[in-house]
Structures are given as structure tokens and as C-alpha cells.
Amino acid sequence: MKKILLTLLILLSINIKAQLKEMRAVWVTNVDSPVLLSDESISAAMDYLASININVIFPVVWNKGYTLFPSEVMESIFSKPIWPTVTGRDPLKQIILEAHRNGIEVIPWFEFGFSPSYSLNGGHILAAFPSWAGKNNQGQLLVKNGFDWMAGTNPEVQNFMISLITELLDNYDVDGVQGDDRLPAMPVEGGYDSVTVAIYKSEHNGAAPPQNYEDTNWKKWRADKLTEFFARMKDSVKSKGDHLIMSVAPSPYPWGFDNYLQDSKTWLQQHIPENMIPQLYRDNLSSYQFELLNALNYVPADEKDIFFAGVLGKAGSYVITPKLLLDQVGLNRQKGVKGESIFFYEALRVNDNQLGDTLAATFYADDALLPYRGNNDFRPKAEIVNEEDSGASFIGNWELRPVMGYKPNVYWTNDTNYAEFRWDFDVPAEAWYDVYTFLVPNTIFTANANYTIFSMNDSINVVISQKNSQNKRWVKIGTAYITTGNKTVVKLDNTMLEPGKFLLADAVMLMINRKLSPDVVITSIKVGDEDYDLSQPSSFLMLQNYPNPFNPSTKIKFSVPNSLLSNQSVIGSVVSLKVFDVLGREIKTLLNEEMSSGEYEITFDGNNLASGIYYCVLRAGDYSKSIKLVLMK
Q: In the chain, pLDDT over 90 holds for what percent of residues?
């Protein structure tokens, strides 16, 4: 017994990067949060989210009539290019860079949708275009819960929103676009603006819409117009790239339909959203369970994998307790929901990161791919070679200095003799890559740092100022098509160095460009320091069970190799898969037979077991691995 338990403890020390498929998302706001106010806070936030295995973020890009990215559309129409608080910066650009560096997808969130302002009579948007205003049946500006509304049924308003969305997609390498409880939406009291009335009359032989905004047919007509717009919005997104995800986080159906004309049931039936996250915001488990089960009732069987849950983490002074958060996430898994999005980022950081760290220790303990990406690691973490890594080398007189760059040190030179620095990468996939270097600008550094990027059949020379204060942190050198393998990707030399100045060498980063390489599939995963591809197994491998925690059954995947490593037994040896309890007692034998090469999936049923922790151990010859199973009834 002691020998078995000791063996289990040794096996449990092996680090496995699990190939789960779950969405672990969070909304990032510009309200009640300072995270978007500096590049440094954005970087720290993305580092933390990556540390707790978040794999997608929804950063706000449209709030109270302002974009959170420099917008030529807003500048040309309203002379309002960006949210005034961040004038001179581009928070979206920075959040994309830092999130993608960490392997996190970025789906911009058009939070305010068809609402141009909050309690400002429509603000600068309706001041410029009064005909865009939503109206109630008394002819007054459409206002609900303090939010002022445009008429979402007005084609000009719809075209304006699409122009903002397509502008963003043209200018940024993002992973999709998200609407919410205000996009597409319109308060049920609306629809009485002159444009909407004219459209209604043209389709009803000149008859005016009913004065009763609750009229069944009138509600359906307006909701259908919003659904038609949503389909057109998706088409506009997809025209910019089929890899771009159409996400939406509506109010729960049927409440959203009855109050905001959001017919999310029909949206799913028409396969419009590719990522559906109803806002199931409740502060107790019974209410949350009611909303979750109600929402699942309206999800077609073929759309279950795109359904996720919106979980309220923080609102004003309210912060969800760790227990309630775990209960809600656990309920999601029990009901087959493969992930959630938490509102909002700051919830994870309050009380010394209590909620985020709780998730990282439980449900988010292992990495996960996004379910709607199949087996594609669509946003792999960026490849980084620091100046002191083995992939870095130099010629000439370079001095290591204790300057805080990407990491504590940097190299620099002011030598007049030739000097160069090279960064070699083990390039994981043939694709287009954005190439960055880390800079800490200072007047002592050169304005003429001469970089060379080596692409597939060519080289690209770029001169960058290392003294310009705008060139700080990760600075893009260029974009190049690079083939797989170990090779020099970037060279820096002093051929343009001014007298008396220093040339700085710090980290260089490669980040896949999905606008240019949307179809590149990356299926390898890491176990320790080695890469594996489950579709062509070259060694034994067992992945984390899914779901986990589970009730009452879970699936366990493993692979049997088609070629052997030197320390593994011959193919044809017996493969055993057994479950033990925490005392090392064998609970069940799931498998004990010879296996041919391939990928396998075994279902473990814990229906007759008590809630608790169990261990599943795979053995084949001298190979063995274990995973922790959490049964939660």
C-alpha cells in the first residue's frame, strides 16, 4: 500500500499541460478599473490573466459615444477620435500585443452598442444626427435605465455601427467582435422614430405601427429587424476573415426579447453567433441555476458547443464570494457548459487576487484550448529570445548592463569597430510573424538602430530610434514570412551608430500574424519541455480528463505512439488505465490490454463513488502518467 501511494505521489509531481477545451474569458472595462490607463498596467494585467489560464478577453472599445482606439470614422464625423482620457495612446493596440504575447485571444467588445450616451440626451452623436434618435410612443427620446438610445432599426445607425466594426477589423489583428445587451438591441418602448415608422408603413400598406409597444406582432417585427441587422453585422465581420469570431453576450431569453427586443433564441436557430454568452448575473446559486437551465432550454443541440455562461464577479461594491464562484462554475461543468466569461477583470484581483487565484487552483488549474477553435492553438504564446538566452549571440564589444529592460539586464555598445547582435529562434510553424524588440528609450541611445529581419527568401532592413520616448516596451520592427526550424531571425548592427551614442540590445519577440496567416493550424501541445501532436503520436501521452470536476462521468484521452522513445517499451505491450483514491487504493480498472498506435478516449463513470479526489494512472511498460480527477456531486 505504501509503495503504491509513494508511486502516485511521484507521478503527481509531473507537470502536464492539459489539452482541455474550455473558454475562460473575462471582460476588461474602462469603468471602475485603471487597467487601460497605462501600457504597464495592461502588460501586468495580461501577465496575471495568463498565469491563471484565461484564454480570451473582451476589452471594451465603444463606451458612451467614444472609441478606445484611434478612429478615423469618429474623427471625420464627430471630431472625436478617441476617449479623451487616453488621448495620445492606443489602448487596444497595447492590449492586443500583451494578450497575444501571452497566448490570449482578443475579441473587442462594443459595449454601448446602439446607446450613444448615458443621461446626456444622446451626447455629441445625437447632437450631430438628431434623426438617429430612438423615440418612444410619445415622440420623446428613448431612454431606459439612464441609457439614451439610437434607433437600432434605422439603417443609417446600423451602417454607422458596422463602419466602426470594419474599421477596427481593418486596422487590428484581433480574433473577433462582440456585441452584448445593447448590440443588437433596442428598448421595447422604442420604434416610433420617423425612419422606423416609415419602414413599417412601407411594409404594411401605409398602416402606422401600434401605439401599444407590447403588441405581439409589432414586437416581433422590430426584433426581426434587429436579427436581420445582426446577420448583416456577422457578414461584415466574416468579410474581413473567416477566422474572426462573431460573439454576443445578450440579456437572457426571453427577458431580453421582452425588454430589449433581443431574439437570441432565433439568433441561435439561424446560426448567427459563433460564441454565445448570456449574462446570467445572479448573486445566489439557486437563481443562477434557474437562469442557466432556462438559457440551456433554448440552445439547439447543434449549438451546445458555442454556448457559454456570463458570470457576475463584481458590480459596484458587490464581489462574488469564492464559494459562490466555484459553485457557479461547477454547475456550468455539470450541465455540459464548456466555459464562462467573468464580469469583470477587477473581480479577479480584489482581496489580493483571491478569486483569480481560486480559479487557478481549481477549475482553471490547467491550460485549455477554445472549444470553437477545434484542435488549433490559434493564438500560441509568442516566442521570445532574451539577450542572455542561448539563442542570442554577438560579435564585437558588447557590455552587459543592469538596466531594467524586458528582464533586469541589457547589452549595449558604443564601439566604433563593427558590432552585431543576433537572435536565433526555433520557429514553430511556417507563417507570417510580427517581429518586435523590447526598448527602454533614453537620450544616450542611438536614433539609428539598424535591424535586419531574415524572412523566407529575403531580408528586411529597418531603422528604429532607441532614444524616442514613444518607442518604449515592445516595439514592432516589421512583419515577415518565416519558415520552421532553428534560424537567425533578427540581426542588429552598429553600422549607423552616431558618435557618442549607445546601441541597445534586449529581447526580441515573434508573434504569429493571424490577419496574414489565418489558416495555419498549430496542434502541438507541451508536456514539460517537449512538443507533442496527438494526431501523430510519437510517445505515450495522457491528457487531463474533461470535464473536471465532473458528475457523474468524465472522459480521459490518451495516445499510443507510432514510434518509440529510447526509454519506452515496444508497441504491443499491455496498456493499463486504473483509478485510485487518495489512499492509493485501486478503485477501478478502465483498461488492461494491448493497444495499437492511435488516440483513444475512455469514459469513467463515478456514479457509485463519493465526492472527492481520485487519481487516474496510465501505465505501459516503463511509461507512467497520472492525472487528478475531481468528482463533485
A: 82
Cβ neighbours of residue 529 closer than 8 Å, sequence gap 6 or more: none
Q: Which residues of 109-127 are buried (b: 16+ CB within 10 A; e: fewer)?
A: bbbbbbbbbeeeebbbbbe
Q: Can you tell me which residue has the cell 516595439?
A: 475
State the cell numbers at 601: 478516449
Phi–psi pair at 606, nearest 5 degrees: -100, 25
Write down the pLDDT at residue 528.
36
> What is the Cα–Cα distance from 443 to 421, expressed in whole angstroms?
21
pTM, two decimal places = 0.83
DSSP code of residue 487: E
**CA gap 132, 113 in Å, rounded:** 13
CA distance 240 to 372: 18
Domains and CATH numbers, the chain: 2-11+528-631 (2.60.40.1930), 17-373 (3.20.20.80), 383-512 (2.60.120.260)
**Positive/negative CA dihedral, 493, 496, 478, 387:** positive
Give Cα separations from 210 to 145, 197, 207 (angstroms). 24, 10, 9
Q: Which residues pair with 618 in a beta bridge?
A: 577, 625
In this predicted structure, which of 288-302, 442-456, 499-513, 618-632 has the lowest mean pLDDT? 618-632
d(CA 275, CA 246): 6
Q: How many residues does the chain have?
A: 633
